[in-house]
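Quick one - first record:
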Amino acid sequence: MNPRTLGELKASGWRSRSVRDEIRENLVAALKSGRSAEERWPGILGFDKTVIPQVENAILSRHDFILLGLRGQAKTRMLRLMTNFLDEQMPILEGCELNDDPLAPISRRGKGLVQEHGDDAPITWIDRDERYREKLATPDVTISDLLGDIDPIKAASRKLSLADEDVLHFGIIPRTNRGVFAINELPDLSPRIQVGLLNILEERDVQLRGFPVRFPLDVLLVFSANPEDYTNRGSIITPLRDRIASQVITHYPKDLDIALTITGQEAWTKRDTVDVHVPRMLSEVVEEVAIQARESELVDQASGVSVRLTVSLMENLVSNAERRALHLGQDSTTARLADLFSADSAVTGKIELVFEGEREGPEAVADRILGDGVAAVFARYFPAPYQGGNPDKEAKDVYKPMVDWFAAGNSASVTDEDAGLAELEQVPGLADLVAASVDPAEKDASLAAEVVLEGLHRASLLAKERSEDGFDYSDMLKDMFKGM
């Protein structure tokens, strides 16, 4: 049982440590135990060789630090995981606003308790999660919010002088004493408020409105921000940047398998109504959509394309397949390419467009990016229709029967309601190409057939026209003459 008085705490042998020493020692123990980066930072993927070592170096150096990166790069999640390196519980003097260390109180109330009760001073214990607090920086944040202010109502109700320390109302940072405090989107904090943080970062104390009492705080300050050059909303003032000891750059997933794992981890795909199977090929398309968006000249690359795009897109895709299965009375279904294009609402809200993109419109840009994602996966699995601008004989021979079939006046429809996809099986050579290129165990032959048709459309060999419930593929030349 945890000690409940100051005397019991002293007898237990408990020792005081600064929050930086505490986090450092617990990280050292985790490293010595051989725990992997995934075990030390659960849910953080793709950072084990880049970001995590730099963050751990900052912890070992007892540094305040900032994570710089575009949106959707797990910055806030990493900051919140700092609690994993705090002790499970910490003793404080009961009833003190500043989480006073029983062996070294800093507030008037804490010092008064020890002076009045001695070893009988009451102690309570707080969990590690209660020692982490964060604030989203917005232009309306004030010094009072962060540090505190004089409370005239308290002074009047208690008949205290404004020179009395008991009239102080502490802000969120002093109340996080002996813990971790995070400020998200630091550049959005107005410059005069950033100045208020300088003393805490360097001198480790806080002073309120010139009040003659200074409080030495024990707080680890951590921050997140978009790189200064990438935001028009604000910037980090030079003195504050200078006082933040370590700066760590985050990034988007650099490996397809890691990206797939992240989306699989974050997206809600297991529904209690219908079992929706999402083939790996379609999962790759979802990841490629984000990759293509990050390379598109129609998208503002300065703002970034969040990982949340792939998560939302996957969830909407699954929901469309679920809706189709419920309508058809099915207990299970396989997601299709039509489900992807029906989920474009997950893309339009996740990308910032440049002027050219605004002219085309968000729906048209989303449709183009979705098609670019399909084209990238098509190139990964199937022969290229053209190489270096010249027809490749082998590739041309593969697709010639299909193109000729469409040139003869035939068309194929990929609809949202079509469950059997029997119409695609009529396209000569399509089933053989799919069988030769796709592992049957993936159960995505129908999807692969759709990817081939979309790939041929993206290569300007087939025309595609959106219908009310899907797409119609036809001969490109015929479509051009129809347009004339």
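second record:
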Amino acid sequence: MIRFNNEWNDYEIIRTGDGYKLEKYSHEYKFLRPDPQVIWKAVPSFDFQRECDAFYSRNNDGGGRWTSNNQIPEEFFVHWRQLTFSLRLMGFKHTGIFPEQAYNWARIIETIKKSQNKNISVLNLFAYTGGATAACILAGASVCHVDAAKSMCERAKRNLIVSGLGLNNVRFIVDDCIKFVEREENRGKKYDAIIMDPPSFGRGPKGETWKVTEQIYELVEKTKKLLSKKPLFFLINSYTTGLQPTSMKVILDKVYSDVPHECEAYELGIQTNEKEVVLPCGASAFMVFK
């Protein structure tokens, strides 16, 4: 079943087709970005010069570039609940946020607020620009935010600051996630919840390689050793085509077969302005411990 959250007040997908989605940010800026899930026809076809302020086109070598039709500010903002996100046009078609994750943020906030433990500590691996980190802090938890890219940690800091949350309840770590988990185990560090959003492929700051379908099970096993005696939840998110929601649920169910829990797998999506189109945008497995 596909899940989505409709609480965005200044982000929307206007229409889709021909491998692209036309989005509007900040009630103002329209961007055309490629989306591999959009395999249907655009009616009418997109006018790349007149219909958007900027568009991203791919190169034959797998890269791409942004082309601006109008002046785009270095920084613009979108808002979700009490959170503010600082965005910009980035490499590989990114803007600095995955709006479909709002469903998971809402679920994280609800789960933390319902907990009787008022000192929840969360480990967020492959944490990107910190949407989930911000959600955890908004709910009253503390977070260890780990990403191999220093620039992403800096963007996450910016998001917390503009959201008015500050940096007191978060520790930022620029490191290879697997090696960090191993060191945390040696240090005897414990967390009440774990979030991970691993990329399909990647490299750590020292050239470490990562392939999610080959290493995700091992990483979940390693992180089990970091959970506290009374853990709260475990969330895995993925944008890898070969890693389906049910596969992630099976991994969690197997690794935690000896621990009472409930685990749900689902597809994430965004309701577009086209009534018949809910755009699929990735997959998650969310496990709550009993």
